[in-house]
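Troubleshooting log. The previous structure file for this entry was overwritten by mistake, so regenerating from the original sequence record. Sequence copied from the archived sheet and checked twice against the printout by T.R.
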Amino acid sequence: MLKLLCAALAVVYGAAIHGNATAQEPPTYPAPVEGDFIAKDFEFEDGNFLDLRIYYRTIGELKRDENGRATNAVLIGHGTTGSGASLLLESFANVLFVDGGALDAEEYFIILPDSIGHGQSSKPSDGLRMKFPQYTYNDMVRAQYLLLSKGLDVDHLRLVMGTSMGGMQSWMWGYQYPDFVDAIMPLASLPVEIAGRNRMVRQLFIDAIKNDPAWNGGNYDEKPMAGMRAASGALMFMTSSPLQMQKNAPTREQSEEMLTAIIGRYSNALDPNDAIYAFDASRHYNPQPHLEKIMAPLVAINSADDQVNPPELQILETEIQRVANGRAIVLPITDETRGHGTHSVAALWEDHLRNLLAASERQ
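Regenerated output below.
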C-alpha cells in the first residue's frame, strides 16, 4: 500500500522521485535514443549567457512529406523537478507509446527533453549554484525550440503536450510559435498567471529551504534537510489526492508511516538550489493576454481533484472561450484519478488525445 501511494505521488509534479517506487512492466515501444544539444551563448531573459546543454530522449523515427517538412514530431514537456525520464512511467508511456497507443512510436517521433534546470540539462547543481542564470518558462520554451530547429532538424510539430509545467509551456507554444504546431494538449495547468494559493505554496517551498541556516545562501556543505522536509510538506499537501490518501492510509499509524516515507522521498531526491530555481521559474508565466493568438486545435485536460488547479476557480472554463479552437475537459473524481498526478494516468484521457489528433489531421 505504501509503495502504491509513493508511486502515485511520484507523478505529481515531474516525477523526480519516481525512482523505484514500484515495479514497472517492461516497455513494448522502441528504446529511447538519448543525446544532448549545446546552445552556444544562450541568452537568458535575465541577460546572462551560458553554453546551455539540453538533454533529450527520442522514441521512433522522424517522417517528412514530399517537401521535406516534418509530419510526425511530438514534443512532450515534463513537470517541475522532473525530466524526460519521468514521462517513461508505465501509466504514461506504456499506454501512449505502445502498439495501438494514441502516440504509437511506430507512427510518431516522440521528443522528451529535459528542461533547463532539470534532469541532465544545465542546472544550478552542476556547479554555479545560485549564480546560475535566473531562468524562466520563456527561456525553457525558447531552448526547446532551438533543440528542435537546430539540434534535431524538426521544422514542425504534429503535437505539443505536457504535464503540469509542461502543460503550461504547451499553452506558450501555442502563441509563441503558432505556425509551428498542429495540435496542443496541456495537462494539469491553467492559462493564467501563477497567483493565489498556487504562488503562495511555491513561495512557502522556496522560503522553507532558504530559511534553513544550513542552506547558507546556496553554498551548503551538507544538504539543508530541515528546510527540505518543510518544503516537501507544503508540496505534498498541494499535489496529493485526499481520496487516495484516505483510501491508502485509513489509520493513524498508516498515515504517519506514509507521511514519513513521502517526505523522505521528496527531501532526498531534490537538490535544494535546483528546486528553488524550478519552482520560481514560473514567476513570469502568463498566457492570458495571448490566448487569441492560439490557432491550433487545443484540448486542455484537468481533473476535479487537482488542488494545484482547483475546478472551483472556473479559470479554465472561462479562459478557454478565448481560444479559437479550444476545448476544456475537467475529469470527474474517481477511484482512478490521482489529484494533480492524473496528468500521468494516460488511460483516463487517452481517448481525448485520439480525438484531438483526428480533428487536427491535415488533409
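The chain has a mean pLDDT of 94. Archived copy saved in two places this time.
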